[in-house]
Amino acid sequence: MIRAYKFLMRPTVGQAAALGDMLRDHCSLYNGALQERRDAYRHASKTTVRYGQQSAQLKDIRALDPECQGRWSFSSQQATLRRLDKAFVAFFRRVKAGGKPGYARFRSSRRFDTVDFPRDGDGCRWDSAPHNPTTRVRLQGVGHVRVHQHRPVAGKVKTISVKREGRRWYVILTADQAQPEPLPATGSVVGVDLGIANFLADSGGAFVANPRHGAKAAKRLEAAQHALSRCKRGSRRRRKAVETVARLHRKVRRQRLDHAHKTALTLVREHDFIAHEDLKIRNMSKAPTPKSDPEQPGSFLPNGAAAKAGLNRSIADAGWGVFLAILAAKAEGAGRQVMAVDPRNTSRRCPACGHTANENRPTQERFHCVSCGHSAHADTVGAINVLRAGLVRREAKPA
């Protein structure tokens, strides 16, 4: 089982400058390799340059530029070239599938924030002794950097990555560890219904409020973005304004992740089986298709785009996708079972008699069956139906 750990680094002023140089030089290598691929395809009869060819050139590149490329880890530079190769593989896969191609782009040094080290001990070394309050990571060309290790790392460290977020530096480890012991069985099963008014409703009638972190920070973000729009490009004042906007976005992201982790952990500790809706979030948050006005060429009929934009913001603010990914990861480590079921008609089907109709849900929150008269909260009804569908699917024998 592979688990990732993310720790805050505390570099000195000189080490922070060296880390910045490392990112810039790896960014230069990435852009140079991309330019070589573009030129080879355009001017050499559509020749495709592979990763193996570019990796073989690294030795000569390091010899020609020992001050920049020669001071960093050979393996980390190979990882940067492999990162570009993955971008091209994904590009050709999307072209073949008929999707949006998304050709690889040149990276600005301010947008190139991660350097990967494929193996612990090759250009980097994780130095963490038990009961040692001073944890350090050694990086070639940088030195021993202090790390704020807020929890122990279980298992053998496999890969190390260095990431910049604003003015902070983080080290990300992946560790190979044995499958942990499952949590004791509780005998409880639950279905969950994700929503906007309430972040989550379960089949037992409980609700988890939607914190709406993005909506709460909207005014501060709007003011910061207005201040950014008034700054002259390239000025020091604009760089500060950009950092302010990024800091506010990072805070919202951390709040959203914290809420998702805590909610998922509660579900995993209390229930052996968790069923949820198999939501197609990307389709749910699409903008509505424009409707042309046949009577006035060049004009469009109202299509509810403004209201849909508000709903899309609420869906993004809730962070359903992040929550479901965290829930699946925690359930795997705890030995719990998570199952996604078809969400169709789950909030319109009566859990008492099985009657399904649009009229069963007269309002957003209220459910009232027109056949048997059963009344309940609509989200609770949806969660009950999700649980029943999940249990049926669990008991079904594979074909």
Helix content: 40-55%
Please give the count of helices.
11
Q: Structural class, from helix and strand content? A: alpha+beta
* Mean model confidence by pLDDT: 92
Number of strands: 16
Unreliable spans: none
Question: How many domains is the backbone divided into?
Answer: 2
Instruction: Based on Cα principal axes, name the global outline.
Output: globular
Radius of gyration: 26 Å
Oligomer designation? single chain
Question: What separation lies between the terminal Cα atoms?
Answer: 29 Å
| Proportion of residues in extended strands | 15-25%
Largest sheet: 7 strands, antiparallel
Taken in chain order, the helices and strands follow as: EHHHHEEEEEEEEEHHHEHEEHHEEEH
Order of strands, main sheet, comes to 2-6-7-1-5-4-3
Could you characterize what this model shows?
- With 399 residues, this protein is an alpha+beta fold.
- The protein folds into two domains: 175 residues, no CATH class; 207 residues, no CATH class.
- It is 43% helix and 20% strand.
- It has eleven helices and 16 strands.
- The strands form four sheets. The protein has a seven-stranded antiparallel β-sheet. The chain has a five-stranded mixed β-sheet with strand order 10-9-8-11-14.
- Strand 9 and strand 10 form a beta hairpin.
- The longest helix has 35 residues.
- The chain is globular.
